[in-house]
């Protein structure tokens, strides 16, 4: 594993340009929250680099963003991870995630999964 570069770019076109220069196999991205604008950036990167895996570290999450990420990860065979920043304590943990995603795994933070399940449970309707 080799870090080929870093970018402070935040808009979609700047990210794509930076990635063109670096030709990454994986993109590690820190974000505040997974919103539609972030998903647009990811889609732009995916179109340009369809075989690149993604590891996203976020401060918090939004259910709509997670659902969009699920659709994003369904359309590919490469790995993807979405983790809350506070759940990664060590470089070793991050390295393990990166390696798993490089192998094609999809990883979702347990706290995010719990939130999705509780949201889904609140929508059940029982009829007699």
Topology:
Elements: H1 12-22, E1 26-33, H2 36-48, E2 53-60, H3 63-74, E3 80-84, H4 91-102, E4 106-108, H5 110-121
Helix pairs in contact: 1-2, 2-3
Please describe what this structure looks like.
- The chain contains 5 helices and 4 strands.
- With 128 residues, the chain is α/β, with parallel strands linked by helices.
- It has one domain: Response regulator (Rossmann fold).
- Strands 1-2-3-4 form a 4-stranded parallel sheet.
- Helix 2 packs parallel to helix 3.
- The longest helix has 13 residues.
- The N and C termini lie far apart (57 Å).
Relevant terms:
Rossmann fold; 47% helix; 19% strand; 128 residues
**CATH topology (level 3) name:** Rossmann fold
Distance between the first and last residues' Cα = 57 Å
Q: Structural class, from secondary structure content?
A: alpha/beta
CATH architecture: 3-Layer(aba) Sandwich
Low-confidence stretches: none
| Name given to the CATH homologous superfamily | Response regulator
Estimate the helix proportion, in percent.
40-55%
Give the overall form.
globular
- Report the order of strands and helices: HEHEHEHEH
Quickly describe the structure.
The protein is α/β, with parallel strands linked by helices and about 130 residues long. It contains five helices and four strands; from the N terminus they run H-E-H-E-H-E-H-E-H. It has a single domain, classed as Response regulator (Rossmann fold), CATH 3.40.50.
């Amino acid at each position: 594993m080799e870090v080929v570069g870093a970018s402070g770019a935040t808009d979609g076109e700047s990210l794509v340009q930076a990635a063109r220069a670096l030709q990454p196999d994986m993109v590690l991205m820190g974000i505040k929250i997974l919103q539609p604008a972030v998903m647009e950036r990811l889609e732009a990167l995916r179109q340009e680099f369809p075989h690149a895996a993604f590891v996203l570290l976020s401060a918090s999450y939004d259910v709509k963003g997670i659902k969009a990420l699920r659709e994003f990860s369904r359309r590919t065979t490469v790995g993807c991870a979405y983790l809350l920043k506070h759940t990664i304590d060590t470089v070793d943990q991050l390295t393990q995630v990166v390696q798993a995603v490089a192998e094609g795994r999809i990883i979702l933070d347990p706290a995010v999964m719990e939130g999705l399940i509780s949201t889904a449970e609140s929508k059940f309707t029982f009829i007699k």
